[in-house]
Amino acid sequence: MSNKCIGPDKIAAVSLSLVLLFFITCNNAFASAVYKVDVKKKLHGSKIFAEINKLNVPGSITILKLSNFGTQTVGCKATFDPRIDQKQTFKRILKPNTDVSIRHSTSRPPNRVNINLDCRPLQKKSATDT
């Protein structure tokens, strides 16, 4: 068996690779929001599509984008429960073929955000109702 020693250039290359790998891993962990978002939908026959986006800024921002693909005007109520702050409820009215975004922020990153989405088609008032 031969006794080979590792040269300083190989040690430098290996240590540089490990440092770069560490920074890439940390950067990816801090750049993406790692909390889970659960959405419970009650659409009552409306054709609403909900899309969730998360931003990892100081604290966190959860963006709920609602799209109405139906032919009726719909009233939506979204309740955000981050479990580290109080619940917040937002109400929006969506006309046919429109989008709306709701932004919810917290002071620190949550472990999970629960969203209850309740959308109902709005009834049109007839001339005799006024």
Question: Quick recap of the structure?
Answer:
It is built from one helix and seven strands; from the N terminus they run H-E-E-E-E-E-E-E. It is α+β, with helices and mostly antiparallel strands and 130 residues long.
Distance between the termini: 100 Å
CATH topology of the domain at 34-121: Immunoglobulin-like
Number of discrete helical segments:
1
Beta-strand proportion: 35-45%
Low-pLDDT runs of 5+ residues are none
Shape: elongated
Largest sheet report: 4 strands, mixed
Query: How are strands sequenced across the largest beta sheet?
Result: 1-7-4-5
Q: Which structural class do you get from the secondary structure elements?
A: alpha+beta
Average pLDDT level:
82
Multimeric state: single chain
CATH C-level class of the domain at 34-121 is Mainly Beta
Helix proportion:
10-25%
Give, in order, the helices and strands. HEEEEEEE
CATH architecture of the domain at 34-121, by name, is Sandwich
Give the beta-strand count.
Answer: 7
Radius of gyration: 25 Å
